[in-house]
Design goal:
By secondary structure, the protein is an alpha/beta fold. The protein has 19 helices and 27 strands.
């Protein structure tokens, strides 16, 4: 059997954009299975994920197997042309496992062993759990690897379990021995001379459980690294078991955006396709931009290859304190936004709404009220839309701007006992991304230390940990003519979370031409900035009323070491000190440093100036002046998404075809309120 070079591309080449959702047939009777399969086909569904939470049904008692019902389900789906993403059921062990083997249940940081009765109730360190998970997975794969309905494999669900118990502690010690080699090296890395924390042997080390005061920050950082690696090991065990039997079909699991417990940079190479669960808050006015950032992350995790939106909601979720539904129009727009940013799969949780259990009020593709509903009509419309967009499959989003982000740096920057809890890594990332999103500028994300060749603008909103390799990549980018912008609280610590000695930002001082000596949380009202003439002109354009620029949240006591000072602080602890600098070395690049958190308007203007200087523009320049209108180019298609409640007219040079309607569009494209157009460059393309 030939193994395709790109298993996911082979699947989408066959099926087109994947469309469907989680399906839980164990909750229903066989007559409902048949009705569901028929309705799926009529809605354009071509893929459903089955078996995510079916372990207790597969194995009602230890060693007992009941697969007969799944045989029928797969046959019913296949008869209607619906493919199956078959999941290993290992996210939620049956109650009998925890009852017979309490050591399989997780222990929290307070030392409390949790109980079954929810989901994800397992310790990833438990050998009994892992053996049981492999046993049921082995039998599942042996039975269904040859079934025609099965087109993809799904390992577990939303990996993120953390355990502080004794078995996890033992595995943590092994991980530490492999990382450091000796207890002396560990003591050096952890800085255990502080607070008399010296260890004489690895056996003395515990996870960072609850203690009387702050834990060692390097211990906490390493435990996060270990926990992510342990879950990846768990994923690989099941993935490798599947791959040994079925080398052809793609294998994946579902990520959760900027999830704080797992380092997806280390995970992504292990998946045949990056898949993600996204649940933006419909009441958040910035949700479209923040979703774009997450989607750009998913595309970047796969080195630009198409990814998959594995879960989203058709209307309301059930897990927030207050759960307003989104409209079918919004669900459609959010789905097409994902396609615009590289998704070749659009799925929901779930197909049919559950009548019992904790998710009984979570929306679904088929609501409690049935098929004759506004939600289901929207589901059918989206299915038709995705069919019309088949020509987009495989297309890429090309970006000249890259934003650096790293999980380990995020973890370390937000550990206890830092200058302020008000400076959030993701807050900075989102703030820097939003003006680029509004301008229609494509953005990739990369881990610090990645190759930055090919990018004209490199943005570093906050990089608390900076390695020598990462610093060298930034220097190389400036040397070859790129523009680099670095934000505050960067270059603070090394990979062990030890504060680097000397002036900050460590390892980046020379390239930036600026250095600092003190981190300064700012009062709630912020601090006024005095802008040099070029920046003042930019701000005047943004604020005709003459409002001054301000620094909020955080600032730094800096001095220029050769950089041009573009803004200074006015008053307070930082009075007269540089707040924003720019160095222009002979090679033609630029190195900007923001020694504060500037207000939204000033940040937008600064980033706009950087983009203009680098010759980087949006896909449709007019969109920058249409708040809430998004433009993304993927392959030969330009997506224009109107996230506002009013229709807009968007200048688009050259006649194009709207793939969603087949209509020819002139130089001025009308996008209805909350609507989407997908313009293809190829003359005569009907998109059908």
């Amino acid at each position: 059997m030939a193994v395709p070079a790109d298993r996911f591309a082979a699947l989408t080449h066959d099926l087109g954009i994947l469309y469907g959702g989680d399906y839980n047939p164990e909750q229903w009777t066989p007559d409902v299975w048949r009705e569901d399969a028929r309705l799926m086909r009529e809605a354009g569904v071509n893929l459903v994920t089955v078996g995510v939470f079916s372990w207790a049904r597969y194995e009602p008692a230890p060693g007992v197997r009941d697969f007969a019902w799944l045989d029928e389900v797969l046959d019913v789906l296949h008869a209607q042309g619906v493919a199956v993403d078959l999941a290993t059921p290992t996210a939620s062990p049956p109650a009998w496992l925890g009852h017979r083997h309490p050591d399989t249940l997780p222990v929290d940081a307070d030392g409390v062993r949790l109980v079954a009765g929810s989901r994800n109730h397992f310790s990833p360190a438990s050998s009994v759990y892992r053996d049981s998970a492999l046993a049921v997975t082995r039998d599942l794969v042996a039975r269904y690897a040859g079934h025609a309905a099965v087109r993809m494999w799904h390992v577990g669900n939303e990996f993120g379990q953390v355990c502080f118990g004794d078995e996890s502690a033992a595995r943590f010690r092994v991980w530490l021995q492999e990382r450091y080699g000796s207890i002396g090296a560990l003591n050096e890395a952890w800085g255990t001379t502080v607070w008399s924390q010296h260890y004489g042997a690895f056996e003395e080390i515990l996870p960072p459980r609850r203690t009387v005061y702050h834990v060692n920050p390097t211990q906490a950082l390493d435990f996060r690294r270990y926990s992510s690696d342990l879950l990846l090991e768990l994923y690989r065990e099941q993935r490798d078991l599947i791959r040994a039997v079925d080398p052809v079909r793609p294998v994946t699991t579902n990520f959760m955006g900027f999830f704080p417990l797992v380092d997806y940079w280390s995970w992504a190479p292990e998946l045949d396709v990056v898949a993600d669960d996204q649940y933006p808050d419909p009441t958040d006015p910035w949700a479209p931009a923040d979703s774009g950032l997450v989607q750009d992350l998913m595309r970047s995790l796969g080195d630009g290859r198409p990814w998959m939106l594995m879960e989203q909601a058709t209307a309301a979720v059930s897990w927030r304190a207050h759960n307003p539904p989104k409209s079918p129009e919004r669900a459609r727009r959010e789905s097409l936004q994902a396609v615009a940013r590289g998704a070749d799969g659009v799925c929901f949780f779930q197909w049919r709404a559950s009548r019992a259990g904790a998710e009984r009020f979570h929306s679904a593709m088929l609501p409690h009220a049935g098929a004759d509903t506004r939600v289901h009509a929207g589901v059918r419309r989206l299915g038709a839309d995705l069919h019309r967009l088949r020509s987009v499959v495989g297309g890429r989003v090309e970006a000249r701007v890259v934003m650096l982000f790293d999980w380990a740096s995020w973890w370390a920057a937000e550990e206890q006992a830092r200058p302020t809890v008000r400076l959030g890594v993701l807050d900075q990332l989102r703030a820097w991304y939003r003006p680029l999103w509004q301008a229609g500028v494509a953005v990739d994300l990369a881990a610090p230390g990645a190759d930055l060749d090919g990018y004209d603008v490199v943005l570093v909103p906050q990089s608390y940990l900076v390695t020598k390799t990462a610093a060298r990549r930034v220097e190389d980018a400036v040397d070859r003519g790129a523009s680099v912008v670095v934000g505050p609280f960067s270059g603070v610590a090394d990979e062990n979370a030890h504060v680097r000695q000397g002036r900050f930002p460590a390892l980046l001082r020379d390239v930036l031409g600026v250095s600092g000596e003190e981190w300064v949380p700012l009062p709630h009202a912020g601090v006024e900035l005095r802008l040099a003439a070029p920046l003042q002109a930019l701000l005047d354009a943004a604020c005709p009323d003459g409002s001054p620029g301000r620094a909020t949240t955080f600032g730094e006591l800096l001095r220029s070491d050769g950089a041009e000072v573009l803004a200074t602080f006015v008053g307070g602890h930082l009075d007269g000190g540089p707040a924003l600098t720019r160095r222009v070395p002979p090679g033609g690049g630029q190195a900007w440093y923001l020694g504060c958190v500037p207000d939204e308007q000033l940040l937008g203007r600064v980033l706009g100036e950087v983009l203009d200087g680098a010759g980087v523009g949006g896909v449709l320049p007019a969109v920058a002046d249409l708040p809430g209108v998004e433009a993304v180019r993927r392959g030969t298609a330009t997506f224009v998404l109107n996230h506002t409640d009013l229709p807009v007219s968007v200048p688009v040079p050259g006649a194009r075809t709207d793939l969603l309607t087949g209509a020819r569009c002139g130089d001025l494209v009308e996008v209805p309120a909350g609507g989407v157009v997908v313009l293809d460059d190829r003359v005569g393309t009907a998109g059908r």
